[in-house]
Amino acid sequence: MAYAKEVATRYCETIQDRIQSGDSLIFCGQLGTGKSHLASCIIRAAIEAGRSAAYLTVTDLVIEVRSTYCSGSKVSLKNILEAWIGVDLLVLDEVGQAVGSEDGWLLFHVLDTRYRRQRPTVIISNLDPERLERCLGPRCMDRLREGGMVVPFTWSSWRCR
Ligand SMILES: Nc1ncnc2c1ncn2[C@@H]1O[C@H](COP(=O)(O)OP(=O)(O)OP(=O)(O)O)[C@@H](O)[C@H]1O
Ligand SMILES: [Mg+2]
């Protein structure tokens, strides 16, 4: 736990540099271990530093994208994706929750475009790093690891204490 807290604290203290360099983080681990909680502290640090930051789950992303498929949709797929790709810091939660056939290309598109624009993403997943790599694919994981790090959350849930 100390390691995760230390990584997040250091990330928050150097938030401008981390955003400038596009340094991503991968929080992996058991249910209830505080991954979303710690990521929300990073969002807060980014906003307090005057940067834009957002929290999104993969399910939210897929629902938003599917809503553009109906003919009466006032929002285009491009605009929806641009909103999430354009934010300085994005926390993408619940990665590895299978939500349909779209999630593969969608996640790659969002993560790869953010990588090319040098914008950091905090990925949160209940999968271990090996299973996460199988889920996202090696190309996504390779991009996320560049300048970033994998932080394991291995202790028991805060919810049952
Ligand atoms: N360091 C901590 N001390 C005490 N409570 C904590 C701590 N970190 C998180 N919590 C609390 O534990 C609960 C679970 O935290 P959180 O939702 O961030 O876990 P999670 O790892 O994202 O879980 P899941 O994988 O199920 O999404 C929340 O109620 C949160 O406020
Ligand atoms: Mg969570």
Question: TL;DR?
Answer:
With 161 residues, the protein is an alpha/beta fold. It has helices spanning 2-13, 15-21, 35-48, 58-67, 77-86, 103-116, 129-136, 138-145, and strands spanning 25-29, 53-57, 89-95, 121-125, 149-153.
Annotation keywords:
about 160 residues; alpha/beta; Rossmann fold; five-stranded parallel sheet; 5 strands; about 50% helix; globular; binds adenosine-5'-triphosphate; binds magnesium ion
Would you kindly provide a written description of the structure presented here, covering whatever features stand out?
This protein is α/β, with parallel strands linked by helices. The chain is 52% helix and 17% strand. It has a 5-stranded parallel sheet, sandwiched between helices. It has helices at 2-13, 15-21, 35-48, 58-67, 77-86, 103-116, 129-136, 138-145, and strands at 25-29, 53-57, 89-95, 121-125, 149-153. Helix 1 (2-13) runs parallel beside helix 3 and helix 5 packs across helix 6 (103-116). The protein has one domain (2-8, 18-153): P-loop containing nucleotide triphosphate hydrolases (Rossmann fold), CATH 3.40.50.300. It starts with a helix and ends in an 8-residue tail after the last strand. Residues 35-36, 93 line the site of magnesium ion.
